Amino acid sequence: MNKILHKKRLATDVYQMRIAAPLIASERKAGQFVIVQIDSHFGERIPLTIADADTKEGSITLIFQAVGRTTHLLAEKSVGDTVAHVLGPLGTPTHIEKFGRVICVGGGIGVAPLHPIAQAMKAAGNELIIIMGARSKELLILEEEMRKIADELVICTDDGSYGRKGLVTEPLKDFCASAPKPDLAVAIGPPVMMKFCAETTRPFAVKTMVSLNTIMVDGTGMCGGCRVTVGEETKFVCVDGPEFDGHLVDFDNMITRLQAFKPKEDAEHHRCHLEEIAEKSP
Amino acid sequence: MSHPTAEQLYTLAEQQLAALTTPLKPKDRMAIPAQEMPAQDPTLRRENMQEVALGYSEAQAKLEAERCLQCPTKPCIKGCPVGIDIPGFIQKITEGNFADAIGIIRENSLLPAVCGRVCPQETQCQAPCTVGKALKSVDKAVAIGRLERFVADWERENGLIKTPHVKPDTGKKVAIVGSGPASITVAADVRREGHSVTVFEAFHRPGGVLLYGIPEFRLPKAIVDREIEELRAMGVEVITDFVIGRTRRLTDLLKKDGYDALFVGTGAGLPKFMNIEGENLVGVFSANEYLTRANLMKGYDNRAATPIFPSRKVAVLGGGNVAMDAARCALRLGAEEVHLIYRRTEAEMPARVEEIAHAKEEGIQFHLLQNPTRILADERGWVSGMELLQYELGEPDDSGRRRPVPVKGSECEMDVDTVIVAIGNDSNPLIRQTTPGLETSKWGTLVVDETGKTSIDRVFAGGDIVLGAATVILAMGEGRRAAKAINELLARS
Ligand SMILES: Cc1cc2nc3c(=O)[nH]c(=O)nc-3n(C[C@H](O)[C@H](O)[C@H](O)COP(=O)(O)OP(=O)(O)OC[C@H]3O[C@@H](n4cnc5c(N)ncnc54)[C@H](O)[C@@H]3O)c2cc1C
Ligand SMILES: Cc1cc2nc3c(=O)[nH]c(=O)nc-3n(C[C@H](O)[C@H](O)[C@H](O)COP(=O)(O)OP(=O)(O)OC[C@H]3O[C@@H](n4cnc5c(N)ncnc54)[C@H](O)[C@@H]3O)c2cc1C
Ligand code: SF4
Ligand code: SF4
Ligand code: FES
């Protein structure tokens, strides 16, 4: 079960893996994710979006950035290894229909979860504008794939090493201000980016969906660790989401909640690296 | 107060047992001192995760069993939700025939090592006990649960658990959703009849709340694992990482995968919050999250990758078993102070009496007739304290308990850095939302008939998903009932 069939490095610290998971592959829809756990005894359960699926091969594709202990351990696995636990597909699928002109904004690793949604939007007959952003050229992923489906594609880098220099919110604003106005925006990326995308579209009243990446434990609605404030209500990202109306999300609270375990996690991660170095040195 | 060691209690029991002169008259039996459960020293156990209650010795068990009057009307049996022949098994203990004792218990209960530990005996089997009534205290009733635990442990520790006989294959298939006590019971009872059984569990390890909720220091996980092993030995297939409603829909199991009947035992896993200001601050957790991190994800072990929030002063809201477990876990995970805040008085606390006593011994500070009105934040958005309101008891409400009413102007602040909300669970909506035609109550629980059948043909349900958050033994009883109906259905068709 859950054998790694393919592995590729897409950018610095960003990996793509195809994993055998036939049932998840056949049930999953755009916008859904899995919970992955590498070690049955002491491992952590982490959520990763299903970036793609192949029902014939019975596989799902994950694209992840090695940021901490679990993602690093996953990155160290090779083709032929297995991932101990993969649970899914979780979350409510993206609502796909023909909206008209849809603008998809992806930042950093957020381009990975955005891709299946953009694909589905295109397939539903929407006109598709894609804005992709990264800190620099080396960190940009899935350009080819996105170019294939976009009617118009804009790339931004923070340092100007590729495409337009600047943040994704700038072209987003331009598109909102020019006719015809987009009928829907979908923004996925770091929470700060999603927050500012929502702020950008708000004055133009362009409905903006965001996909939230809160901390999760079970992923089935049992623990409430993933909760966010949306409008006046508390929602569980793993079952009610991960997508919500960006104009209603309390991003500041969400960003603060993401920090809850940061001191501990950074210490763990640091320890991990030290061990790695220690192992490599004679 | 000095804490008696297990050795002291064991030696004392030897002496008391040797001093008994037979035949015993009822008066003599009533004079035998109720046997105290040996426990780890409170100052030591608050630093470790090992089991708190250490179990009776043989002498203690025999002595405690001699306290039973063998009442002809057997009032205790009516207090046990699964009707165990209590005087019957106790009689066998007095004879030193532990094998027959556990045999009698097993006729009605599948999980004696679990129930002996976690049943709220003081409101169930021990409540109507004649000895307790005569001595005017339920604490002095015959310790039925502890005796049950003793023989169950004796059986397990001596490697005497026998895998139940399974009838020849019938070719019929049953799927079970969830792996808590209700599901474990159904799996065993249905498999015994020769039907093929598959258990689907969302988590990476089977056992339900017994595993992720109730902590190791109250119910060692090895006991739960042992029960699951037993199911596997009977030929039950247990599939983890499989969430019904998402990986596969409930109705697809019937329509596409060829199962002849289903049992839904998905529990009450939807945490309630108080809906007060500040509840989404960093440092506020549901008890489910806190306990899952601590137990299932092994947060108490420094090899675990799942982090535990670093707490100094913890407040736990609630007065049930879940609240006690969360409070005692927080203490063991390094909190300096743990405060338990409950709206009513100790008499109304739904937790097991033994857990309340253990929590107090360990230094959990109880704040009764108080309730938070809001949670306060520091400049970073992390919990810095709580505003509490005092209550007093007013008129009795529908449940007959006196209703707590707030005392005007009694707000005060308490400084804490962590708040754990343990005020109960509703049912998880996943199955309901993904299964059209499945009838539910207004509380979200599944509606079943007297055999445990839901509104969908061939689909049965039981345990917390039907009862709302209840108990292990009730979940097991419901499982028994549904298994019987499933077996009858499969015998007919
Ligand atoms: C629905 C959902 C879908 C996701 N999809 C993807 C994906 O497709 N690809 C991908 O690379 N990542 C994705 N993430 C984020 C991913 O889950 C985290 O990067 C991962 O949990 C980090 O685990 P770790 O043990 O490697 O790092 P940790 O050591 O746990 O954390 C490292 C750092 O990341 C932060 N962090 C921890 N958990 C999260 C989180 N859930 N989200 C954001 N930051 C976090 C920590 O505060 C810390 O600073 C998704 C998250 C959610 C909720
Ligand atoms: C902290 C705590 C302490 C407790 N203490 C006591 C006590 O001392 N005494 C006592 O008698 N009772 C106690 N209880 C209550 C008792 O544990 C429950 O009543 C009992 O476990 C209910 O059993 P169940 O079989 O209905 O479901 P659960 O034990 O809740 O098991 C349900 C299982 O189903 C799985 N599941 C849910 N949805 C799906 C799905 N869609 N697909 C696949 N799997 C799914 C869950 O992951 C879970 O493993 C306590 C409960 C808690 C939370
Ligand atoms: S199963 Fe529970 S209620 Fe029944 S006799 Fe045993 S401890 Fe008492
Ligand atoms: S009621 Fe008490 S004394 Fe009487 S038979 Fe039951 S356990 Fe024994
Ligand atoms: S991750 Fe536990 S409720 Fe969402």
Structure description:
The complex is a heterodimer of chains A (282) and B (493). Chain A is α/β, with parallel strands linked by helices and 282 residues long. Chain A is built from nine helices and 15 strands. The mean pLDDT of chain A is 92. Chain B has three domains: 6-157, Fumarate Reductase Iron-sulfur Protein, Chain B, domain 2, CATH 1.10.1060.10; 173-269 and 427-492, FAD/NAD(P)-binding domain (3-Layer(bba) Sandwich), CATH 3.50.50; 271-425, 3-Layer(bba) Sandwich (FAD/NAD(P)-binding domain), CATH 3.50.50.60. In chain B, the strands form four sheets. In chain B, strands 3-2-1-4-16 form a five-stranded parallel β-sheet. A five-stranded parallel β-sheet of chain B has the order 6-14-7-8-9. In chain B, strands 10, 11, 12 and 13 form a four-stranded antiparallel β-sheet that branches. The model of chain B has no long low-confidence stretch (mean pLDDT 94). The interface between A and B is large, with 45 and 44 residues. The site of one flavin-adenine dinucleotide has 26 residues of chain A, from strand 4, strand 5, helix 2, helix 3 and helix 9.
Output mean pLDDT of chain B.
94
| Total E-strand runs of chain B | 16
Determine and state the CATH class of the largest domain in chain B.
Alpha Beta
CATH architectural grouping of the largest domain in chain A: 3-Layer(aba) Sandwich
Q: Give the end-to-end Cα distance of chain A, rounded to a whole number of Å.
A: 36 Å
Shape of chain B: globular
Order of strands in the sheet with the most strands of chain A?
10-9-8-7-11-12-15
User: What is the CATH top level name of the largest domain in chain A?
Assistant: Alpha Beta
Tell me the number of strands of chain A.
Answer: 15
Oligomerization state of this entry?
Answer: heterodimer
List the uncertain runs of chain A: none
Low-pLDDT parts of chain B are none
Cofactors, ions and other ligands in the entry: flavin-adenine dinucleotide, iron/sulfur cluster, FE2/S2 (inorganic) cluster
> What is the helix content of chain A?
25-40%
Q: How many separate helices of chain A?
A: 9
**Biggest sheet details of chain A:** 7 strands, mixed
How big a fraction of the residues of chain A is strand?
25-35%
Q: Tally the helices of chain B.
A: 20
CATH architectural label of the largest domain in chain B: 3-Layer(bba) Sandwich
* CATH-level-4 superfamily name of the largest domain in chain A: Nucleotide-binding domain of ferredoxin-NADP reductase (FNR) module
